[in-house]
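Hi team,

Filling in the usual template for the complex we talked about on Friday. All components are listed, including any nucleic acid strands or ligand strings, so the model treats them as one assembly.

SUBMITTER: L.P.
PURPOSE: interface mapping
COMPONENTS: two
RESIDUES: 513
SEQUENCES:
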Amino acid sequence: MAGSNPNAKPMNLTLKVWRQPNRQAQGKIVDYQVKDISPDMSFLEMLDVLNEDLLRGGQDPVAFDHDCREGICGSCDLFINGRSHGPEKGTTTCQLHMRKFSDGDTITIEPWRASSFPVNKDLSVDRSAFDRIIQAGGYVSVNTGGAPDGNEIPIPKEISDRAFEAATCIGCGACVAACKNASAMLFVSAKVSQLALLPQGQVERKTRVENMVAQMDKEGFGACTNIGSCAAECPVGISLENIAILNREFLAAKASSNNLA
Amino acid sequence: MSWITKTFTSSIGRKIIMSLSGLFLCTFLVVHLIGNLQLFKHDGGAAFNTYSHFMGTNPIIRTIEWGLVLGFGFHIYEALMLTRRNKAARGSQGYVSNHSEQNSEWTSRNMGILGTIILIFLLVHLYNFFWRARFAGDIPKMGGADPLTRDYDNLYMAVVDSFHIWWYVLLYVAAQISLGYHLWHGFRSGFQTLGLNHRKYTPAIKYIGYAFAVLVSAGFASMPLYFFLFTNAQGELAANAPAVLQSVAAAF
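RESULT (copied from the run log):
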């Protein structure tokens, strides 16, 4: 296998996995043993091995969210050993590799915990609250044309870099999961500052932040207390500076928008 | 709801009130600390009592006092509202395993506990000095020959008496440690909430906040410790106090 380490020894692990049959049911931690796990496997491949074992034994496999498995889609979302996306910094669960663990380790795997992210089943959570926040204002409704038209609008390199940094948010929800207050402000701030920085976002700049914050509150997310867990656990490194930008965008919009309601 | 109530009952609006009231209370701490430093002036309490009399009777100070009541009121009320929202946001099922110590500071996650300790202290502290001086009126007068100061409350002796009670000194010092940790997070957090984050100034704000937290809490805590350890029942420097304190006191 290309890139694999021939000296790497397979590992045996104890998994403590959150099992919950459906949204209403009470869940619990169930212990499983997995054997002969290659250190070159990703964390999700390790779970695939567990599920194959469970299926062979006639048991219900563990449900978990995943899609691209290359760290860009934001689907995977496991709380591993008390950390969003596990112990490695700047990594999604799918890009976390088993070489970060040792033979004989016990690994606790839980879903994101937030009242706004109800558990569908086992480790899979419903993050449609994020979609509704985006629907409330995380878009540009003026026609900005195709790529050549886009290049007609001069944007300084520094501004485009900062907007792009904010735009790297993949909406995985690790920030909500890690936050003591289950606050979505790092996510919302990334979307708000990305569009507030660019000329295409100016038309709806004030109503956008007003509506997105209102939707965020309506969904029941907590309020930021500047702890910083979110930015520390963010797989793409969205910084706390964005939350400060969100706060001042919100205050400025409330003070100067024409919206009296 | 009007746009104003909507703004200040939103999550960010409540945080902005939290931040403004908190930073205002920081300015109060500075004034209170500097005024209290007069306790160290070994003059039998003349300066401290004159200052206390001014603070308790001057109409401008008495008006600003209401601002202070509002500052504390808003800070505590919003803390309760935000805590309630934030607890509900996590949901009834918390994490079985959560290692938040690996991604954040203890003090940042425990502002509510620290604030509660400060509040308990504040109630005892207000009862002991403010309530007795303003409402109960049971603090003895200064007396003496000076017609200007003889009718002033002798708050200095009330302080000296309190600072010789071990459990009061302990509560005072514990509260100041809590205040120190509260400010350690709170000072920089106040600026961040107001949107005042800039790569040039934020590092400076952070370290000024750390220095502020240490200076203010150590400054306040030094007073009960000093009187408990080094003075007699009249607040005079005890004979067995360290020589360095004797020479400092003599220099003034």
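MY TAKE: The radius of gyration of chain A is 21 Å. The domain at 128-256 of chain A is CATH 1.10.1060.10 (Fumarate Reductase Iron-sulfur Protein; Chain B, domain 2).

Thanks, L.
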